[in-house]
Amino acid sequence: MLKKSLGVKYYKGNKHVLKYLKNETETCSDDVGYVKRYLLPILNENNINNSILNVQCDFGILIIGNNDFCLPVTFSEPLGFKHFKNIIFPFFNNKNNNKNKIGDKNNILRNRQQNACYVSSPLMQYAGYAANDLYKLKLSFIPFIIARFILSCLIVFFCITSLDQVLYVNNFLLSTNLYPDFKKSYDTKELEIIFSKIFNLLSLSHPSRIVLFRSIDDFGTSKILKNILTKKPYHMNFVLSRKIHYQQVASSKLWKKSKYSCISRFFELIRYTNNNISIYYLFL
Fold this sequence. Notes:
Strand order of the largest sheet: 1-2-3-4-5-9-8
Number of helices: 9
Oligomer: single chain
Shape: globular
Number of strands: 9
Helix content: 25-40%
């Protein structure tokens, strides 16, 4: 019987990730096989946005144990003031762009289309889409100015605090990203060791980036991770996000009357210090 491994490896960059995904000499679990089948078509393209038009990012991958589990990681160039200047500083818009005024209103990031998706940018999730849809609401003048001012403040806050300079963990570029069932292979103590190694690897490879674990909730397979990461040394705090719904599709009651197990999905924030480097950890 093979000894259980608590080791963690991290491959950074599309080239190294693709090399790992194409490696067929090592045996891997069904979970790793699923990730490989999912990511290979995306990374085989010359550019990510050949597969997903409004996403531009680089991939990394975390390998846990003896190819027992793996978590895809994404990171991209952060959006900044220049991409939202028409919202923050409307009086300085280029007069030569008047012909494209309507197009600009309908697409704030018209010239940055490849990095304009909430799965690769928190700034787009919390401000970009709202700014893009603001013109569609057809508000009267005063409510429009107020809404635009609030969005401008939010965008400025993200830019000043570098909250868009992120590293997404377990990001399949989907709205909801499910976790493997770690409990089948590891107990809580072993997972604490594994995730301590994960944090150390990520902080060394991306010392200036915010790290986000996507799709953490109180109900699914990520629950055990939430229980670990809300305690020492991480102390996660909940921040508002959207809701998701779980349904027992095998239950006959579901087909007679709508039965939902509803759970909020959290966006959590922590400041974690390792080797005198301060890093923010966010959960989505």
